[in-house]
Amino acid sequence: MDFGLSDDQTLLQTSLSRVLNVAAPLARVRRFAEDETDKASDVWDALASLGLPGLVIAPARGGMGLGLLDAALAAECLGRHVAPIPFAATSVMVPLALQDAGTTAQCARWLPSLAEGACTAGLAVSEHTGAKEDAGVRYIDGRLCGRALFVLDFAADVFLVADESARLYLVERDAAGLEARSLVSIDRSRRLGELLFRAVPAVCLPGSENPLVLQRTLDRGRVLLAADTLGAAQHMLDAAVSYAGTRQQFGRVIGSFQAVKHLCAEMAAALEPCRALLWYAAHSLDLEATDAHITACHTKAHMAEVGKFVAKTATEVHGGVGFTDLLGLHYWFKRIGLNRQWLGSPERLRHEAARAQGYA
């Protein structure tokens, strides 16, 4: 039995990388990070031409109908290039939640536009991924009230919002009573924000009365963030190996020193098993396996720890230049840092997995 990627999946990653090499070099990422009004529309359009926004959306709604594993492979490429575009929420989590729990009218209204890349969607689930001060959304008399922090894919046209009862609602960005505020985070390659709800009219996804809909949505996002971290960490490892092969000290390249060899080998040894774990987590969610939730939690928690180790070690291999803006290594370092916290810290996810197994 072949447990590797199919030819189509390998081609997907190759095609995305080829486009990103041209559309999102480090200079483009740096411009995005320095200009809060920049939406990287050129990068988004380049990827939309490959069908990336509609990757998991059903063909009947204009998408490609692929699985979460394919989306995870795409997320790995985006992380490797620190691509300054929305993806996890707008292209995967929100469309799949709509297909799981939305009405026919809701799907017809949003999915074709999302598949085309004509609009984007954000996700507001803050109180379900960790305690946040003054955060939480309540549904009262047909309207949403409260505050959602750290909204994923914040520069969006529509938001999928979870209330305190785990029900999901669609809220358009220009809805009366909704205030969207940008937040500054360590990761400037993506937009982050908060939503303030002052009696905002909202449309519920009927199927989200089942709390498993939100759980599956979160688990999919966790796998995608783990994949993004894997891509970013792989880039940092590759950059460290390349630098060690050219940087000279005491008349020889530093890669010839045993200590530097050990650092690079330790990073490679820590990263390689993560790839199989990630593939299995995505595959189990596609199949709705009984261990899918537990595996998603452990995958993101483990990848967060490994990503942190690789980011730190790769920066050390680069020495003092690793901390400079000129090199740009910090974009990957900080992306890994934000991925670690979004949708649940490693500690929270391990506790969630333990609770799912009856140990907490």
Give descriptors for this structure:
globular, 4-stranded antiparallel β-sheet, alpha+beta, Butyryl-Coa Dehydrogenase, subunit A, domain 1, 360 residues, 4-stranded mixed β-sheet, Butyryl-CoA Dehydrogenase, subunit A, domain 3, 11 helices, Butyryl-CoA Dehydrogenase, subunit A, domain 2
Give a short synopsis of this structure.
The protein is an alpha+beta fold. It contains 11 helices and 10 strands.
Protein described:
With 360 residues, this protein is α+β, with helices and mostly antiparallel strands. The protein folds into three domains: 89 residues, Orthogonal Bundle (Butyryl-Coa Dehydrogenase, subunit A, domain 1), CATH 1.10.540; 89 residues, Butyryl-CoA Dehydrogenase, subunit A, domain 2 (Beta Barrel); 145 residues, Up-down Bundle (Butyryl-CoA Dehydrogenase, subunit A, domain 3). It contains eleven helices and ten strands.
CATH class identity of the largest domain:
Mainly Alpha
According to DSSP, the number of beta strands is: 10
- Through-space gap between termini: 37 Å
CATH superfamily of the largest domain: Butyryl-CoA Dehydrogenase, subunit A, domain 3
The string of secondary-structure elements, in order, is: HHHHHHEEEEEEEEHEEHHHH
Largest sheet: 4 strands, mixed
Structural class: alpha+beta
Low-pLDDT residue intervals, each spanning 5 or more residues:
none
The strands making up the biggest β-sheet line up spatially as 1-4-5-8
Q: Average the pLDDT over all residues and give the rounded result.
A: 95
Radius of gyration: 20 Å
